[in-house]
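Hey, can you fold this one?
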Amino acid sequence: MRQLIVLGLVGLLAQLIDGSLGMAYGVTSTTLLLAAGIAPATASAAVHFSEIGTSLVSGISHHKFGNVDWKTVSILAVPGFIGAFAGATFLAGLSGDAATPWISGILLLLGVYVIWRFLALGGRRPTFKGRPGPKLLVPVGLIGGALDSIGGGGWGPVGTTTLLSSGRLEPRKVVGSIDTSEFVVAVGGSLGFLFALGSSGIEWSIAAALLIGGIIAAPFAAWLVKILPARVLAIAAGGIIILTNARTIALALGASTATVSTILVVLAAVWIALIVQAVRNERRTRRAEAAQEAEVEVAAGS
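Sure. Predicted structure:
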């Protein structure tokens, strides 16, 4: 019983991060399940079944707060389903260890780009033009869905990172659209695992505990996305991308636990400083906008 309560808290924390920043539910949950000695395929299967419920509630919540671009979701969801199903049924038996550092390296660079793009604005507001089209969304869906099933997480890191770096959707709509389309991805991955493992291979109690915790967190996370300024949200997401992938790369290169910890502490300190700077920039922008509005009102009154 104690283990199920802990898993419920894991689901709550993972969904709070995922619903706010568009990633890390699968990565957080799967990492802790593997640390508890659960087999990779079983862990990923439990996470995917729990994500069916958490992503559904998260998608509804994001829609209520206006965080979803439905055209993006409609293009992204189908290849995501196909990639997740293929990853669960045909690719789950392959080792992803060799490819992981390279994928993490690409994602880390994209995370750096996301932070640079929004910090380079200084006091100006970010602008977002156009929408991502099928040429971008279809491969993102296929790759993200496949990696999500193989690694127990990957939809958010691949999808959120790519869409944020494209600069075509504001961060809250990137997060909301990725979280909403994740429902279809979770269904695809779950069906694949059900086909490959059978119902007896699914840890239903683990999936249920993660689901309950995630459902509790989903509405609050969607509200948080609604109120966070674009630059703050983007830098927060970029930091999660960098921290997660820096750890993966360091471990793949054989770094010691102490070295990995030192790297993450330094990166976390820089990340916090950048968030503080983003908040200051946002306040400066708001003051300038308020002063401008006051000037316009005075001019109109005279």
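Residues 257-301 form the longest helix (45 residues). Let me know if you want another pass with a different chain boundary.
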